[in-house]
Design goal:
The protein is mainly alpha-helical and 173 residues long. It contains 10 helices and 4 strands; from the N terminus they run H-H-H-H-H-H-H-E-E-E-E-H-H-H. The protein has a two-stranded antiparallel sheet. A two-stranded antiparallel sheet has the order 2-3. Helix 7 packs across helix 9 and helix 7 packs antiparallel against helix 10. The chain is globular. The structure holds heme C.
């Protein structure tokens, strides 16, 4: 059995723990041509997304039930309002902790902080979510590095990011 086959079998037989899912996801990502096939391989932010985010949110942003939410609709909706844009910036800078609902699915885990990435990289990753994964219209203003810098100037913890989300999160699918 190939390594990938062994991982798939392990993932199928075991309870879906984070460890088995991560292993299967890494194996799938290694062999995946999702973005090459979809034509988004060269999108700014795509490489940083694959390197930093895909392990939990999946190479195409579909998430994984009860472990990490899909990023296929809400980011574009956040990006359409000033407080939603702040929410996106806070989430990647400081992470998030606490139960959330996305569509009709529930998640309650820790999103890690990515403050070690620079403002331009984080803006590019967020724009990849908004314009590539969510296919927001080009009339929507892209996230700018300055918006990341503005949130970086006001450090928060992951629970405070969750509290802010409570006020700005989209509802529904
Ligand atoms: C270790 C797994 C993990 C990694 C890596 C990760 N995330 Fe997350 N992400 C989560 C979890 C878990 C949540 C939900 C947190 C909660 O329940 O409060 C989340 C939530 C989010 C949300 C908020 C969704 C919403 O509806 O409010 C965004 C946006 C997001 N992640 C983007 C990213 C981006 C961009 C990256 C890479 C820079 C990334 N994530 C990397 C696990 C991860």
């Amino acid at each position: 059995m190939s390594d990938r086959g062994a991982l798939r079998a392990a993932a199928a037989n075991a309870a879906p723990t984070l460890t088995t899912w991560l292993a299967a996801s890494l194996a799938a990502a290694a062999g995946s041509e999702v973005f090459a096939a979809g034509g988004s391989a060269g999108a700014p932010g795509a490489a940083a997304f694959q390197a930093n985010c895909a392990v939990c949110h999946g190479p195409a942003g579909a998430g994984i039930p009860s472990l990490a939410p899909p990023l296929l609709a809400y980011p574009a909706r956040y990006a359409a309002t000033p407080e939603g844009r702040r929410q996106l910036a806070m989430t990647v800078l400081y992470g998030m902790f606490g139960d959330i609902t996305v569509g009709d699915a529930h998640f309650n885990a820790q999103m890690p902080a990515f403050a070690q990435l620079d403002d331009a990289t984080l803006a590019a990753v967020l724009n990849f979510l908004v314009f590539d994964l969510d296919r927001a219209p080009g009339t929507l203003r892209p996230l700018a590095a300055a918006e990341l810098a503005a949130e970086r100037a006001h450090p928060l913890d992951a629970a405070a990011v969750h509290e802010h989300r409570r006020r700005v999160a989209p509802a529904g699918p």
